[in-house]
Design a protein that fits this description.
- The structure is a single chain.
- By secondary structure, the chain is an alpha+beta fold.
- The chain has one domain: Endonuclease/exonuclease/phosphatase (Deoxyribonuclease I, Chain A, 4-Layer Sandwich), CATH 3.60.10.10.
- 23% of the residues lie in helices and 25% in strands.
- Keywords: Hydrolase, Magnesium, Metal-binding.
- Its EC number is 3.1.11.2.
Length: 256
């Protein structure tokens, strides 16, 4: 099974890019972030025509997450538990085959310190609590999406420039580490422990051309899936397409 994650940065504005990539790579499951569209504006028919069922949790102008699947998909949850007043559409969870798939768009948190950074860390705590519960069930689980975290200096071009950024502050990196230490496997780093791999390139200063990127889109696998991991990669070339997202699609392949 090939599972991908892709922050599309506007599902309708980037729909031709998304459909082109789906046709080219044909993943079995795709998690999308930053739909930037309310539920009624999600391009369901175009996704169906591409061969995918879909569930989505939209929001006007901001955020929004979706899971696409070639097989039957059963929604388990929309929204992260722990804050009934949270209006951000940042989490959706489904069962596809025998795998629980959580698709997330973690808050950016800038400027830091400040209220947005506090919200990021609080959201992280809610994610850790929910993730711990998922592990306790002993089922195969994938938690994937845009985490807005560079876990180590290897994951960021010129890390000295990012020390005060919410994506790289010590509190953020510690939150990610304590999440992983629950028993999750960072799929990319398991297969490529020392390689420079980026998943995001800013639109400014020719970041993509200079390979000046960040690794902020991650796959965390439960122990039941760790041993099934066969491959993982970034479709970096998609970032070079016209009118593309500032993120690259990232994917893993799991064996039976």
């Amino acid at each position: 099974m090939k599972i991908a994650t892709y922050n599309v940065n506007g599902v309708n504005g980037r729909l031709p890019v998304l459909l082109r990539w789906l046709q080219e790579t044909s993943p079995d499951v795709v998690c999308l972030q930053e739909l930037k569209a309310p539920d009624e504006k999600f391009p369901e028919q175009a996704i169906r025509d591409a061969g995918y069922q879909a569930i989505w949790h939209g929001q006007k102008s901001w955020n929004g997450v979706a899971i696409l699947a070639k097989a039957d998909i059963r929604e388990l949850r929309r929204g992260l538990p722990g804050d009934p007043d949270d209006s951000h559409s940042r989490y959706i969870e489904a069962m596809v085959g025998d795998i629980v798939i959580g698709c997330l768009y973690l808050p950016n948190g800038n400027p830091a310190p400040g209220p947005k950074f506090d919200y990021k860390l609080a959201w992280f705590e809610r994610l850790k609590s929910h993730a711990s519960g998922l592990l306790a069930h002993g089922m195969p689980v994938v938690l994937t999406g845009d985490y807005n975290v560079m876990p180590t200096e290897l994951d960021v071009y010129k890390p000295e420039r990012w020390l005060d950024d919410a994506l790289f502050r010590p509190e953020t990196r510690l939150a990610f580490k304590t999440l992983v230490d629950q028993g999750w496997t960072d799929a990319i780093r398991k297969l490529y422990p020392e390689e420079k791999i980026y998943t995001f390139y800013d639109y400014f200063r020719n970041a993509y051309g200079r390979d000046a990127g960040l690794r902020i889109d991650h796959f965390l696998l439960s122990p039941e899936l760790d041993k099934r991991l066969l491959a993982a990669a970034v479709d970096r070339h998609v970032r070079g397409w016209e009118k593309t997202s500032d993120h690259c699609p990232v994917w893993i392949e799991l064996g039976d």
